[in-house]
Amino acid sequence: MLVLENIGKRYGTLTALDGVSLRIEAGEFFGLLGPNGAGKSTLMSLVAGLRSPDTGSITLDGRPLTAADAAARMTLGLVPQHIALYPKLSAEQNLKIFGQLYGLGGALLRERIDGGLEAMHLADRRRDPVHTFSGGMQRRLNIVASLLHRPKLLLCDEPTVGVDPQSRNAIFEFLEHLNREGLTVIYSTHYMEEATRLCSRIGIIDHGKIHALGTLDELLLRLPFEEEIRFPADDRTAGLAAQLADAGTIEQTEELFRFRPRPGYPLSTFYGRTESLGLPARLFTSQRPTLEALFLHLTGRKLRE
User: What GO molecular function annotations does the UniProt record carry, in alphabetical order (predicted)?
Assistant: First the structure.
């Protein structure tokens, strides 16, 4: 569906994107995960046609996607990182303006406005000025505006920044529903939990480069360990720690042993050993690898630095 090949973008001496290549298939919920300044918004703006890349090409269904091609951009919807609404106008008036910009009108536009407001739980506030809305309500209205023309590809650039938990859940559920109905979504975020919940495939971006690409399970396999088990470092567990030396890596802090099994080591064997030594299960906590840990492993810094 969408293909980016060797995309580069510079702002003066700053390299915002450096040789980015991606292929997004129809029906995907693709996540672009990275910290602020990683290049996510620049990439979104290039796909949306707001800017042109310095190098490389972007095609949608085999057709070049450029800033000058207004017809191609009609197949896209953009939810920008910053609210793009007229604050003194009502929700309904805002949606009428956006709908008319897309060439909609009459009964069809009224139907889509009604459906969008209802879906995002804003119908009872349709005549209220947008400046009276909470940040979360404005975000939801922005999403409705981006979908009036029924795009085949929706670009969401950090759409939950500053949003309350209720609005965040409403946005998640709405986007998941649209994706199940066939809408392709590209979703940028610096929240690991959002990418984990929403995205069928994830690209990890930092300093303008894609460092890893795949499903959540595929990405986590890139970590040098599959699981970590922690348990108290005391006389009760010293014997177990000694037995585990040949089964993976065992590290000791003042209070804890941290055991990382070697690839293929069955955890049933580990728990069999604990039972044979009479050690209760409550002593052990299992920590699975996370996207946060993967990002640190790939880039050497935390996701939110």
Answer: ATP binding; ATP hydrolysis activity
> How far is 271 from 17, CA to CA, in rounded Å?
47
The range of the structural domain enclosing residue 161 comes to 1-75+151-166+181-223
Read off the tokens for 132: 């009276």
Which residue do the tokens 């559920």 mark?
173
Q: If we measure between CA atoms, which residue out of 229, 231, 235 comes closest to residue 247?
A: 229
Query: Do 122 and 134 fall into the same domain?
Result: yes
CA 50 – CA 57 distance, rounded (Å): 14
Q: What is the pLDDT along the chain (305 residues), one digit of tens a residue?
A: 899 999 999 999 999 999 999 999 999 999 999 988 889 999 999 999 889 999 999 999 888 887 777 777 789 999 998 999 999 999 999 999 999 999 999 999 999 999 999 999 999 999 999 999 999 999 999 999 999 999 999 999 999 988 888 888 889 999 999 999 999 999 999 888 899 889 999 999 999 999 999 988 888 877 765 578 899 999 999 999 999 988 888 999 889 999 988 877 887 888 888 988 999 988 998 877 777 778 877 877 766 65
CA angle 105, 139, 172 (to 5 degrees): 105
Residue in 225, 223, 277 with CA at minimum distance from that of residue 251: 225
Overall domain count for the chain:
3
CATH number at residue 48: 3.40.50.300
